[in-house]
Amino acid sequence: MTRITICAVVLLLAPTVCSSQIGTSIAGARDAIVRGKYAYAAEDLEELARRDTSGEARTYLATARMYRDRRFYDSLEDFGEAFAAGGGASFIVAHSHEVMSDAEVVNVCRGWLHFRSGRVEFESSESGHAFAVTAAEVREVDTNRLARGLFHIRIGDRKWNFRTRTATRDEAQLVVAIYSKCVRSAAALGDR
Ligand SMILES: [Zn+2]
Question: Stretch 64-86: mean pLDDT, rounded?
């Protein structure tokens, strides 16, 4: 009797345990991406994406492939599929605390910039530098003309300057394309 009860409880808990295990595995893959282990992370995420129903594994799989292969046009398609699956696009960025130029920016905080349907979030290593806003609150996302690999986000009166991980114009342009194609358009649909 007890054994049957235990089995029933295990069966009831199984879906929750599985989804939290996937969450932990995705967090591990995210850390691997931060450490530059892109191929290793992509391998794990390919397997996780088959079981994950939230679209998050697919999102970070697209991120790992982008940094591994640097084929940014393909990444636009990969991230588009991640949005369609309920996820989005996530980038590792450095937030500059100085006036931006081509010179190496020293004073920065680092973190993840997340684009999801109608939402933009900066998950920062520094308290007070994180934000989570709706696309309707974002005034502009654009590349910085004077330096490669840089882009900015205007929210209210504040301008946030970011450097992409690959420090390439292509990655900065991908960020802008994802925002206008997948984030802003979703907000416009929501406004109707
Ligand atoms: Zn910062």
Answer: 97
